[in-house]
Design goal:
This protein is of the alpha/beta class and 474 residues long. It has 13 helices and 22 strands. The mean pLDDT is 96. The structure holds flavin-adenine dinucleotide and nicotinamide-adenine-dinucleotide (NAD). Flavin-adenine dinucleotide (FAD) binds next to helix 1, strand 2, helix 2, helix 3 and strand 4.
Length: 474
Protein backbone atom coordinates (compact mmCIF):
# COMPACT_ATOMS: atom_id res chain seq x y z
CA UNK A 1 0.00 0.00 0.00
CA UNK A 2 2.91 2.39 0.78
CA UNK A 3 3.47 5.05 -1.86
CA UNK A 4 0.02 4.54 -3.42
CA UNK A 5 -1.78 7.63 -4.69
CA UNK A 6 -5.56 8.17 -4.64
CA UNK A 7 -7.72 10.97 -6.01
CA UNK A 8 -9.24 11.26 -2.55
CA UNK A 9 -8.09 10.00 0.86
CA UNK A 10 -10.75 10.32 3.57
CA UNK A 11 -9.78 10.13 7.26
CA UNK A 12 -12.78 9.11 9.39
CA UNK A 13 -15.65 6.83 8.38
CA UNK A 14 -18.63 8.49 10.09
CA UNK A 15 -21.65 9.90 8.23
CA UNK A 16 -19.46 12.73 6.92
CA UNK A 17 -16.49 10.65 5.78
CA UNK A 18 -18.32 7.63 4.38
CA UNK A 19 -20.84 9.77 2.47
CA UNK A 20 -17.94 11.77 0.97
CA UNK A 21 -16.13 8.54 0.03
CA UNK A 22 -19.19 6.97 -1.62
CA UNK A 23 -20.08 10.14 -3.55
CA UNK A 24 -16.47 10.58 -4.72
CA UNK A 25 -16.39 6.94 -5.88
CA UNK A 26 -19.72 7.40 -7.70
CA UNK A 27 -18.03 10.28 -9.56
CA UNK A 28 -15.29 7.88 -10.71
CA UNK A 29 -12.57 9.11 -8.37
CA UNK A 30 -10.22 6.59 -6.74
CA UNK A 31 -10.85 6.65 -2.99
CA UNK A 32 -9.19 5.38 0.18
CA UNK A 33 -11.29 5.59 3.36
CA UNK A 34 -9.50 5.17 6.70
CA UNK A 35 -11.49 4.56 9.88
CA UNK A 36 -10.11 3.39 13.21
CA UNK A 37 -13.24 2.03 14.89
CA UNK A 38 -13.55 -1.66 15.71
CA UNK A 39 -16.49 -3.66 17.06
CA UNK A 40 -16.15 -5.81 20.19
CA UNK A 41 -15.36 -8.81 17.96
CA UNK A 42 -12.42 -6.93 16.41
CA UNK A 43 -14.17 -6.41 13.06
CA UNK A 44 -14.25 -2.93 11.46
CA UNK A 45 -17.16 -0.81 12.66
CA UNK A 46 -17.56 1.99 10.08
CA UNK A 47 -20.31 4.57 10.55
CA UNK A 48 -18.60 6.70 13.19
CA UNK A 49 -20.12 8.00 16.40
CA UNK A 50 -23.50 8.28 14.74
CA UNK A 51 -23.94 4.63 13.83
CA UNK A 52 -21.97 3.02 16.65
CA UNK A 53 -22.54 5.11 19.77
CA UNK A 54 -24.82 7.96 18.76
CA UNK A 55 -27.86 8.54 16.56
CA UNK A 56 -28.75 4.97 15.65
CA UNK A 57 -28.29 3.07 18.93
CA UNK A 58 -29.87 5.90 20.93
CA UNK A 59 -32.92 5.84 18.67
CA UNK A 60 -33.14 2.04 18.97
CA UNK A 61 -33.32 2.43 22.76
CA UNK A 62 -35.74 5.34 22.49
CA UNK A 63 -38.10 3.14 20.50
CA UNK A 64 -37.77 0.12 22.81
CA UNK A 65 -38.39 2.26 25.88
CA UNK A 66 -41.37 3.95 24.20
CA UNK A 67 -42.99 0.57 23.53
CA UNK A 68 -42.53 -0.36 27.19
CA UNK A 69 -43.99 2.94 28.33
CA UNK A 70 -46.97 2.83 25.95
CA UNK A 71 -47.88 -0.73 26.97
CA UNK A 72 -47.91 0.30 30.61
CA UNK A 73 -49.57 3.69 30.35
CA UNK A 74 -51.36 4.24 27.06
CA UNK A 75 -52.77 0.92 25.81
CA UNK A 76 -55.60 0.75 28.35
CA UNK A 77 -57.20 3.82 26.77
CA UNK A 78 -57.29 1.90 23.47
CA UNK A 79 -59.02 -1.01 25.21
CA UNK A 80 -55.89 -3.16 25.22
CA UNK A 81 -55.16 -4.82 28.54
CA UNK A 82 -51.74 -6.35 28.98
CA UNK A 83 -50.81 -8.24 32.10
CA UNK A 84 -47.39 -8.85 33.63
CA UNK A 85 -45.30 -6.51 31.51
CA UNK A 86 -41.61 -7.00 32.13
CA UNK A 87 -38.55 -5.29 30.70
CA UNK A 88 -35.64 -7.44 29.57
CA UNK A 89 -32.89 -4.82 29.35
CA UNK A 90 -30.28 -7.30 28.11
CA UNK A 91 -32.53 -8.24 25.16
CA UNK A 92 -33.12 -4.55 24.42
CA UNK A 93 -29.35 -3.96 24.30
CA UNK A 94 -28.81 -7.09 22.17
CA UNK A 95 -31.41 -5.84 19.69
CA UNK A 96 -29.76 -2.42 19.59
CA UNK A 97 -26.34 -4.03 18.99
CA UNK A 98 -27.89 -6.10 16.19
CA UNK A 99 -29.20 -3.00 14.44
CA UNK A 100 -25.74 -1.39 14.64
CA UNK A 101 -23.98 -4.53 13.39
CA UNK A 102 -26.35 -4.88 10.45
CA UNK A 103 -25.65 -1.31 9.38
CA UNK A 104 -21.85 -1.74 9.89
CA UNK A 105 -22.05 -4.70 7.50
CA UNK A 106 -24.19 -2.74 5.05
CA UNK A 107 -21.57 0.01 4.89
CA UNK A 108 -18.75 -2.50 4.29
CA UNK A 109 -20.76 -3.87 1.34
CA UNK A 110 -21.31 -0.37 -0.03
CA UNK A 111 -17.56 0.34 0.16
CA UNK A 112 -16.89 -2.86 -1.79
CA UNK A 113 -19.61 -2.16 -4.36
CA UNK A 114 -18.19 1.33 -4.92
CA UNK A 115 -14.59 0.03 -5.12
CA UNK A 116 -13.49 2.14 -2.17
CA UNK A 117 -10.23 0.96 -0.58
CA UNK A 118 -11.28 0.76 3.08
CA UNK A 119 -8.59 0.55 5.78
CA UNK A 120 -9.39 -0.19 9.41
CA UNK A 121 -6.67 1.95 10.98
CA UNK A 122 -5.59 5.44 11.94
CA UNK A 123 -4.84 8.24 9.51
CA UNK A 124 -2.50 11.15 10.24
CA UNK A 125 -2.07 14.03 7.79
CA UNK A 126 1.54 14.97 6.98
CA UNK A 127 2.85 17.71 4.66
CA UNK A 128 1.93 17.69 0.93
CA UNK A 129 -1.26 15.63 1.43
CA UNK A 130 0.65 12.57 2.47
CA UNK A 131 -1.26 10.45 4.96
CA UNK A 132 0.39 8.10 7.42
CA UNK A 133 -1.80 5.03 7.84
CA UNK A 134 -1.35 2.82 10.92
CA UNK A 135 -3.10 -0.54 11.15
CA UNK A 136 -2.66 -3.50 13.54
CA UNK A 137 -0.11 -4.85 11.05
CA UNK A 138 2.00 -1.90 9.90
CA UNK A 139 2.46 1.80 9.22
CA UNK A 140 2.55 3.04 5.63
CA UNK A 141 2.16 6.32 3.77
CA UNK A 142 -0.24 7.13 0.94
CA UNK A 143 -0.85 10.36 -0.97
CA UNK A 144 -4.18 11.98 -1.79
CA UNK A 145 -4.63 14.46 -4.62
CA UNK A 146 -7.28 15.61 -2.18
CA UNK A 147 -7.61 14.74 1.50
CA UNK A 148 -10.89 15.02 3.41
CA UNK A 149 -10.61 15.19 7.21
CA UNK A 150 -13.72 13.72 8.85
CA UNK A 151 -12.55 12.54 12.28
CA UNK A 152 -15.69 13.71 14.12
CA UNK A 153 -15.88 14.58 17.80
CA UNK A 154 -15.38 13.23 21.31
CA UNK A 155 -17.22 14.06 24.54
CA UNK A 156 -16.10 16.94 26.76
CA UNK A 157 -15.17 15.94 30.27
CA UNK A 158 -15.35 18.11 33.38
CA UNK A 159 -12.69 18.44 36.05
CA UNK A 160 -13.36 16.30 39.10
CA UNK A 161 -15.59 13.85 37.22
CA UNK A 162 -13.67 10.92 35.79
CA UNK A 163 -15.43 8.63 33.30
CA UNK A 164 -14.79 5.03 34.40
CA UNK A 165 -17.25 3.47 31.95
CA UNK A 166 -18.96 1.60 34.79
CA UNK A 167 -20.50 4.02 37.24
CA UNK A 168 -19.62 7.32 35.62
CA UNK A 169 -20.29 7.07 31.89
CA UNK A 170 -20.49 9.08 28.70
CA UNK A 171 -22.81 8.30 25.76
CA UNK A 172 -21.05 4.98 25.15
CA UNK A 173 -21.80 3.66 28.64
CA UNK A 174 -25.33 5.08 28.76
CA UNK A 175 -26.20 3.08 25.64
CA UNK A 176 -25.11 -0.18 27.23
CA UNK A 177 -26.35 -0.38 30.85
CA UNK A 178 -27.07 -4.03 31.59
CA UNK A 179 -29.95 -3.20 33.89
CA UNK A 180 -32.02 -0.14 34.60
CA UNK A 181 -30.21 2.00 37.17
CA UNK A 182 -32.47 2.73 40.12
CA UNK A 183 -31.18 6.27 40.35
CA UNK A 184 -29.56 7.92 37.36
CA UNK A 185 -27.84 11.30 37.57
CA UNK A 186 -27.15 13.24 34.36
CA UNK A 187 -24.80 16.21 34.06
CA UNK A 188 -26.13 18.43 31.27
CA UNK A 189 -29.78 18.76 30.19
CA UNK A 190 -28.78 19.17 26.53
CA UNK A 191 -29.66 16.89 23.66
CA UNK A 192 -27.95 13.72 24.94
CA UNK A 193 -29.02 14.31 28.55
CA UNK A 194 -32.68 14.73 27.58
CA UNK A 195 -32.74 11.83 25.11
CA UNK A 196 -30.88 9.31 27.28
CA UNK A 197 -32.53 10.57 30.47
CA UNK A 198 -35.94 9.95 28.81
CA UNK A 199 -34.96 6.41 27.79
CA UNK A 200 -33.93 5.33 31.27
CA UNK A 201 -36.81 7.21 32.92
CA UNK A 202 -39.29 5.28 30.77
CA UNK A 203 -37.59 2.06 31.80
CA UNK A 204 -38.03 2.91 35.48
CA UNK A 205 -35.02 4.97 36.60
CA UNK A 206 -35.40 7.93 38.88
CA UNK A 207 -33.65 10.56 36.74
CA UNK A 208 -32.11 13.84 37.92
CA UNK A 209 -30.54 16.21 35.39
CA UNK A 210 -28.10 18.90 36.54
CA UNK A 211 -28.02 21.81 34.11
CA UNK A 212 -25.61 24.72 34.57
CA UNK A 213 -27.71 27.14 32.48
CA UNK A 214 -30.69 28.92 34.05
CA UNK A 215 -32.84 28.20 31.02
CA UNK A 216 -33.76 24.85 29.48
CA UNK A 217 -33.13 24.50 25.73
CA UNK A 218 -32.02 28.08 25.19
CA UNK A 219 -31.59 27.30 21.46
CA UNK A 220 -35.35 27.14 20.85
CA UNK A 221 -38.01 29.78 21.52
CA UNK A 222 -39.25 30.33 25.04
CA UNK A 223 -42.78 28.98 24.37
CA UNK A 224 -41.31 25.81 22.86
CA UNK A 225 -38.84 25.38 25.73
CA UNK A 226 -41.65 25.95 28.26
CA UNK A 227 -43.88 23.38 26.56
CA UNK A 228 -40.96 20.90 26.62
CA UNK A 229 -40.22 21.61 30.29
CA UNK A 230 -43.90 21.01 31.17
CA UNK A 231 -43.91 17.65 29.37
CA UNK A 232 -40.64 16.53 30.96
CA UNK A 233 -41.95 17.48 34.39
CA UNK A 234 -45.14 15.48 33.77
CA UNK A 235 -42.97 12.52 32.84
CA UNK A 236 -41.11 12.84 36.13
CA UNK A 237 -37.72 14.03 34.86
CA UNK A 238 -36.20 16.09 37.66
CA UNK A 239 -34.39 18.90 35.84
CA UNK A 240 -32.38 21.19 38.12
CA UNK A 241 -31.58 24.39 36.24
CA UNK A 242 -28.76 26.67 37.40
CA UNK A 243 -26.87 23.82 39.08
CA UNK A 244 -23.17 23.33 38.55
CA UNK A 245 -21.62 19.97 39.30
CA UNK A 246 -18.32 20.32 41.18
CA UNK A 247 -17.22 16.72 41.29
CA UNK A 248 -18.24 13.07 41.53
CA UNK A 249 -16.69 10.16 43.44
CA UNK A 250 -17.43 6.45 43.23
CA UNK A 251 -17.60 4.54 46.46
CA UNK A 252 -19.22 1.16 47.15
CA UNK A 253 -20.75 1.05 43.68
CA UNK A 254 -22.52 4.39 44.18
CA UNK A 255 -21.68 7.79 42.73
CA UNK A 256 -21.69 10.75 45.07
CA UNK A 257 -22.15 14.03 43.19
CA UNK A 258 -21.38 17.42 44.69
CA UNK A 259 -23.08 20.38 43.08
CA UNK A 260 -23.83 24.03 43.67
CA UNK A 261 -27.46 25.18 43.41
CA UNK A 262 -27.83 28.91 43.94
CA UNK A 263 -25.07 29.58 46.45
CA UNK A 264 -25.48 26.29 48.27
CA UNK A 265 -23.17 23.31 47.92
CA UNK A 266 -25.15 20.04 48.02
CA UNK A 267 -24.69 16.30 47.53
CA UNK A 268 -26.70 13.57 45.85
CA UNK A 269 -26.06 9.85 45.38
CA UNK A 270 -26.77 7.81 42.25
CA UNK A 271 -26.28 4.28 40.90
CA UNK A 272 -24.99 5.67 37.60
CA UNK A 273 -23.93 9.11 36.44
CA UNK A 274 -24.06 10.18 32.77
CA UNK A 275 -21.80 13.05 31.74
CA UNK A 276 -23.33 14.84 28.72
CA UNK A 277 -21.84 18.34 28.71
CA UNK A 278 -21.15 18.72 25.00
CA UNK A 279 -18.59 17.46 22.51
CA UNK A 280 -15.37 18.79 20.99
CA UNK A 281 -13.69 18.26 17.62
CA UNK A 282 -11.43 15.18 17.50
CA UNK A 283 -8.55 17.20 16.06
CA UNK A 284 -5.79 15.92 18.35
CA UNK A 285 -3.37 13.48 16.71
CA UNK A 286 -4.89 14.17 13.30
CA UNK A 287 -2.67 16.68 11.49
CA UNK A 288 1.09 17.35 11.62
CA UNK A 289 2.29 20.91 12.28
CA UNK A 290 3.66 21.15 8.73
CA UNK A 291 0.44 19.86 7.10
CA UNK A 292 -0.69 23.44 6.55
CA UNK A 293 -4.01 22.84 8.31
CA UNK A 294 -4.87 25.33 11.06
CA UNK A 295 -7.10 24.98 14.11
CA UNK A 296 -9.45 27.50 15.68
CA UNK A 297 -9.20 28.46 19.37
CA UNK A 298 -11.86 25.81 20.10
CA UNK A 299 -9.74 23.11 18.45
CA UNK A 300 -11.92 22.85 15.34
CA UNK A 301 -10.30 22.61 11.92
CA UNK A 302 -10.48 26.04 10.30
CA UNK A 303 -12.48 25.98 7.05
CA UNK A 304 -14.23 28.38 4.66
CA UNK A 305 -17.83 28.07 3.42
CA UNK A 306 -16.80 25.29 1.04
CA UNK A 307 -15.07 23.28 3.82
CA UNK A 308 -11.60 24.08 2.43
CA UNK A 309 -8.85 24.22 5.05
CA UNK A 310 -5.82 26.50 4.86
CA UNK A 311 -3.88 23.68 3.14
CA UNK A 312 -4.31 23.34 -0.62
CA UNK A 313 -6.73 20.53 -1.56
CA UNK A 314 -7.29 19.51 2.04
CA UNK A 315 -10.93 19.67 3.19
CA UNK A 316 -12.61 19.15 6.56
CA UNK A 317 -16.23 18.34 7.33
CA UNK A 318 -18.74 17.32 10.02
CA UNK A 319 -18.17 17.58 13.76
CA UNK A 320 -14.54 18.59 13.15
CA UNK A 321 -15.59 22.01 11.84
CA UNK A 322 -17.93 24.96 12.66
CA UNK A 323 -21.67 24.53 12.63
CA UNK A 324 -24.02 22.14 14.39
CA UNK A 325 -22.75 18.69 15.34
CA UNK A 326 -25.34 16.69 13.42
CA UNK A 327 -25.04 13.58 11.26
CA UNK A 328 -27.01 14.97 8.29
CA UNK A 329 -24.95 18.16 8.34
CA UNK A 330 -21.76 16.05 8.20
CA UNK A 331 -23.12 13.91 5.32
CA UNK A 332 -24.29 16.84 3.22
CA UNK A 333 -20.93 18.60 3.67
CA UNK A 334 -19.15 15.38 2.65
CA UNK A 335 -21.26 15.01 -0.49
CA UNK A 336 -20.81 18.68 -1.42
CA UNK A 337 -17.02 18.44 -0.99
CA UNK A 338 -16.81 15.24 -3.09
CA UNK A 339 -18.83 16.91 -5.86
CA UNK A 340 -16.68 20.05 -5.77
CA UNK A 341 -13.50 17.93 -5.99
CA UNK A 342 -14.97 16.17 -9.04
CA UNK A 343 -15.57 19.53 -10.72
CA UNK A 344 -19.31 19.77 -9.98
CA UNK A 345 -21.13 22.43 -7.97
CA UNK A 346 -21.37 21.03 -4.46
CA UNK A 347 -24.33 22.61 -2.70
CA UNK A 348 -24.86 22.87 1.03
CA UNK A 349 -26.86 25.43 3.00
CA UNK A 350 -25.86 25.73 6.66
CA UNK A 351 -28.85 28.05 7.27
CA UNK A 352 -31.42 25.32 6.65
CA UNK A 353 -30.09 22.42 8.74
CA UNK A 354 -32.96 20.89 10.71
CA UNK A 355 -32.52 19.89 14.35
CA UNK A 356 -34.45 17.16 16.10
CA UNK A 357 -34.44 16.15 19.76
CA UNK A 358 -35.90 12.67 19.99
CA UNK A 359 -37.68 13.02 23.30
CA UNK A 360 -41.38 12.26 23.67
CA UNK A 361 -42.84 14.51 22.36
CA UNK A 362 -40.16 15.16 19.74
CA UNK A 363 -38.79 18.67 19.31
CA UNK A 364 -37.73 19.85 15.84
CA UNK A 365 -36.80 23.17 14.35
CA UNK A 366 -35.17 24.82 11.35
CA UNK A 367 -34.08 28.34 10.48
CA UNK A 368 -34.53 31.32 12.74
CA UNK A 369 -36.20 31.47 16.13
CA UNK A 370 -38.29 34.44 17.28
CA UNK A 371 -35.46 35.36 19.65
CA UNK A 372 -33.01 35.54 16.74
CA UNK A 373 -35.35 37.53 14.50
CA UNK A 374 -35.96 40.06 17.28
CA UNK A 375 -32.21 40.36 17.93
CA UNK A 376 -31.61 40.89 14.19
CA UNK A 377 -34.42 43.45 13.95
CA UNK A 378 -36.27 41.45 11.27
CA UNK A 379 -40.04 42.04 11.12
CA UNK A 380 -42.00 38.79 11.16
CA UNK A 381 -45.48 37.30 11.47
CA UNK A 382 -46.06 34.07 13.34
CA UNK A 383 -48.71 31.39 13.18
CA UNK A 384 -49.12 28.43 15.48
CA UNK A 385 -51.41 25.46 15.74
CA UNK A 386 -51.85 22.80 18.45
CA UNK A 387 -51.87 19.05 17.68
CA UNK A 388 -54.80 18.81 20.12
CA UNK A 389 -56.95 20.45 17.42
CA UNK A 390 -56.08 17.81 14.80
CA UNK A 391 -58.23 14.74 14.33
CA UNK A 392 -55.19 12.54 13.76
CA UNK A 393 -53.35 13.68 16.90
CA UNK A 394 -56.42 12.90 19.02
CA UNK A 395 -57.08 9.59 17.26
CA UNK A 396 -53.48 8.56 17.91
CA UNK A 397 -53.70 9.68 21.52
CA UNK A 398 -50.68 11.90 20.96
CA UNK A 399 -52.05 15.37 20.95
CA UNK A 400 -49.62 17.42 23.02
CA UNK A 401 -47.50 20.12 21.43
CA UNK A 402 -47.83 22.56 18.56
CA UNK A 403 -46.36 23.86 15.31
CA UNK A 404 -45.08 27.43 15.07
CA UNK A 405 -44.10 29.10 11.81
CA UNK A 406 -42.33 32.43 11.36
CA UNK A 407 -42.59 34.37 8.12
CA UNK A 408 -41.06 37.65 6.95
CA UNK A 409 -43.51 40.49 7.67
CA UNK A 410 -43.00 42.06 4.24
CA UNK A 411 -42.37 39.19 1.85
CA UNK A 412 -44.05 36.32 3.79
CA UNK A 413 -40.96 34.18 3.07
CA UNK A 414 -40.75 31.36 5.61
CA UNK A 415 -37.87 32.14 7.99
CA UNK A 416 -38.24 29.49 10.66
CA UNK A 417 -40.30 26.60 11.98
CA UNK A 418 -40.51 24.97 15.40
CA UNK A 419 -42.48 21.86 16.16
CA UNK A 420 -42.98 20.05 19.44
CA UNK A 421 -45.20 17.03 19.16
CA UNK A 422 -45.71 13.59 17.61
CA UNK A 423 -43.51 12.84 14.58
CA UNK A 424 -41.98 16.33 14.68
CA UNK A 425 -38.82 14.72 13.25
CA UNK A 426 -40.70 13.89 10.03
CA UNK A 427 -42.97 16.94 9.87
CA UNK A 428 -40.05 19.39 9.92
CA UNK A 429 -38.95 18.15 6.46
CA UNK A 430 -41.82 19.99 4.77
CA UNK A 431 -40.68 23.24 6.37
CA UNK A 432 -37.07 22.62 5.30
CA UNK A 433 -38.19 22.06 1.70
CA UNK A 434 -40.30 25.22 1.73
CA UNK A 435 -37.41 27.28 3.10
CA UNK A 436 -34.86 25.78 0.70
CA UNK A 437 -37.15 26.74 -2.22
CA UNK A 438 -37.53 30.24 -0.72
CA UNK A 439 -41.23 29.50 -0.22
CA UNK A 440 -43.70 31.55 1.81
CA UNK A 441 -46.22 30.68 4.49
CA UNK A 442 -48.85 31.31 1.78
CA UNK A 443 -47.22 28.56 -0.34
CA UNK A 444 -47.58 26.14 2.56
CA UNK A 445 -51.13 27.32 3.19
CA UNK A 446 -52.14 26.62 -0.42
CA UNK A 447 -50.66 23.11 -0.58
CA UNK A 448 -53.22 20.32 -0.13
CA UNK A 449 -52.46 18.27 2.99
CA UNK A 450 -54.03 14.83 3.38
CA UNK A 451 -56.71 14.39 6.05
CA UNK A 452 -56.49 13.18 8.73
CA UNK A 453 -52.72 13.63 9.18
CA UNK A 454 -50.40 15.34 11.62
CA UNK A 455 -49.13 17.44 8.72
CA UNK A 456 -52.43 19.33 8.87
CA UNK A 457 -51.00 21.08 11.94
CA UNK A 458 -48.24 22.52 9.69
CA UNK A 459 -50.90 23.55 7.15
CA UNK A 460 -53.06 25.20 9.81
CA UNK A 461 -50.04 26.99 11.32
CA UNK A 462 -49.33 28.39 7.83
CA UNK A 463 -52.95 29.57 7.58
CA UNK A 464 -52.64 31.04 11.09
CA UNK A 465 -49.75 33.28 9.95
CA UNK A 466 -52.46 35.16 8.03
CA UNK A 467 -55.05 34.75 10.81
CA UNK A 468 -57.18 32.25 8.87
CA UNK A 469 -56.64 28.87 10.53
CA UNK A 470 -59.82 26.83 10.12
CA UNK A 471 -59.83 24.68 13.24
CA UNK A 472 -58.89 27.30 15.82
CA UNK A 473 -60.13 30.75 16.78
CA UNK A 474 -57.65 33.24 15.32
P1 LIG B 1 -18.11 10.79 13.51
O1 LIG B 1 -19.44 10.18 13.35
O2 LIG B 1 -17.63 11.05 14.88
O3 LIG B 1 -17.09 9.83 12.76
C1 LIG B 1 -15.72 10.03 12.78
C2 LIG B 1 -15.04 8.69 12.74
O4 LIG B 1 -13.65 8.90 12.50
C3 LIG B 1 -15.12 7.90 14.05
O5 LIG B 1 -15.46 6.57 13.79
C4 LIG B 1 -13.72 7.99 14.63
O6 LIG B 1 -13.39 6.87 15.43
C5 LIG B 1 -12.89 8.05 13.36
N1 LIG B 1 -11.58 8.67 13.51
C6 LIG B 1 -11.23 9.70 14.33
N2 LIG B 1 -9.92 10.01 14.16
C7 LIG B 1 -9.44 9.15 13.23
C8 LIG B 1 -8.17 8.97 12.64
N3 LIG B 1 -7.14 9.75 12.95
N4 LIG B 1 -8.02 7.97 11.74
C9 LIG B 1 -9.07 7.16 11.40
N5 LIG B 1 -10.29 7.29 11.92
C10 LIG B 1 -10.49 8.30 12.82
N6 LIG B 1 -26.83 13.59 15.20
C11 LIG B 1 -27.98 13.61 14.49
O7 LIG B 1 -28.03 14.24 13.44
N7 LIG B 1 -29.09 12.93 14.90
C12 LIG B 1 -29.09 12.21 16.05
O8 LIG B 1 -30.10 11.62 16.40
C13 LIG B 1 -27.90 12.18 16.83
N8 LIG B 1 -27.86 11.47 17.98
C14 LIG B 1 -26.69 11.42 18.69
C15 LIG B 1 -26.69 10.70 19.88
C16 LIG B 1 -25.53 10.62 20.63
C17 LIG B 1 -25.54 9.83 21.91
C18 LIG B 1 -24.35 11.26 20.15
C19 LIG B 1 -23.07 11.16 20.92
C20 LIG B 1 -24.36 11.99 18.98
C21 LIG B 1 -25.54 12.08 18.23
N9 LIG B 1 -25.61 12.83 17.06
C22 LIG B 1 -26.77 12.88 16.35
C23 LIG B 1 -24.44 13.56 16.54
C24 LIG B 1 -23.78 12.75 15.41
O9 LIG B 1 -23.40 11.49 15.93
C25 LIG B 1 -22.55 13.48 14.88
O10 LIG B 1 -22.90 14.80 14.52
C26 LIG B 1 -22.01 12.76 13.66
O11 LIG B 1 -21.64 11.44 13.99
C27 LIG B 1 -20.79 13.49 13.09
O12 LIG B 1 -20.33 12.80 11.98
P2 LIG B 1 -18.80 12.87 11.54
O13 LIG B 1 -18.71 12.05 10.30
O14 LIG B 1 -18.35 14.27 11.51
O15 LIG B 1 -17.99 12.18 12.73
P1 LIG C 1 -25.29 19.86 24.46
O1 LIG C 1 -24.44 21.00 24.09
O2 LIG C 1 -26.54 19.63 23.72
O3 LIG C 1 -25.70 19.98 26.01
C1 LIG C 1 -24.78 20.07 27.02
C2 LIG C 1 -25.44 20.73 28.20
O4 LIG C 1 -24.60 20.59 29.32
C3 LIG C 1 -25.67 22.22 28.01
O5 LIG C 1 -27.03 22.51 28.25
C4 LIG C 1 -24.75 22.88 29.04
O6 LIG C 1 -25.28 24.06 29.59
C5 LIG C 1 -24.64 21.78 30.08
N1 LIG C 1 -23.42 21.84 30.89
C6 LIG C 1 -22.15 22.06 30.49
N2 LIG C 1 -21.31 21.98 31.54
C7 LIG C 1 -22.06 21.69 32.65
C8 LIG C 1 -21.78 21.46 34.01
N3 LIG C 1 -20.54 21.52 34.48
N4 LIG C 1 -22.79 21.17 34.84
C9 LIG C 1 -24.08 21.10 34.38
N5 LIG C 1 -24.40 21.32 33.08
C10 LIG C 1 -23.41 21.59 32.22
O7 LIG C 1 -24.32 18.59 24.42
P2 LIG C 1 -24.62 17.03 24.50
O8 LIG C 1 -25.98 16.78 25.03
O9 LIG C 1 -23.43 16.43 25.16
O10 LIG C 1 -24.59 16.61 22.99
C11 LIG C 1 -23.45 16.92 22.18
C12 LIG C 1 -23.87 17.17 20.76
O11 LIG C 1 -24.20 15.93 20.13
C13 LIG C 1 -25.14 18.00 20.63
O12 LIG C 1 -24.87 19.37 20.71
C14 LIG C 1 -25.59 17.63 19.25
O13 LIG C 1 -24.88 18.39 18.33
C15 LIG C 1 -25.17 16.17 19.15
N6 LIG C 1 -26.36 15.32 19.40
C16 LIG C 1 -27.43 15.44 18.57
C17 LIG C 1 -28.56 14.67 18.79
C18 LIG C 1 -29.73 14.82 17.88
O14 LIG C 1 -29.56 15.39 16.81
N7 LIG C 1 -30.90 14.35 18.25
C19 LIG C 1 -28.62 13.79 19.85
C20 LIG C 1 -27.51 13.71 20.70
C21 LIG C 1 -26.39 14.48 20.45
Amino acid sequence: MSGKEFDVVVIGGGPGGYAAAIRAAQLKLSVMLIDDRKADDGKPAPGGTCLNVGCVPSKALLDSSKHFHHIQHDYVAHGIKVKDVEMDVKQMITRKNGVVKQLNGGLMQLFKANKIEFVNGTGYLLADRQVQVTTDEDTTTVTGKHVILAAGSVPFTIPGVEIDGQHIVDNVGALAFEKTPKKLGVIGAGVIGLEMGSVWKRLGSEVTLFEAADELLAVVDTDMARAAAREFKKQGLDIRLGTKVQGAKVSRSKVKVTYVEGEKEQEATFDKLLVAVGRRAASEQLVADDSGVTLTERGQIEVNDQCQTQADQVWAIGDLVRGPMLAHKASEEGIAVAETIAGHHGHFNLDHVPWVIYTDPEIAWVGKTEKELKAEGVGYCSGSFPFAATGRGLAMGEASGHVKLLADAETDRLLGAQIIGPNASELIAECVVTMEFAGSSEDLARIVHAHPTLSEAVHEAALAVDGRAIHKAN
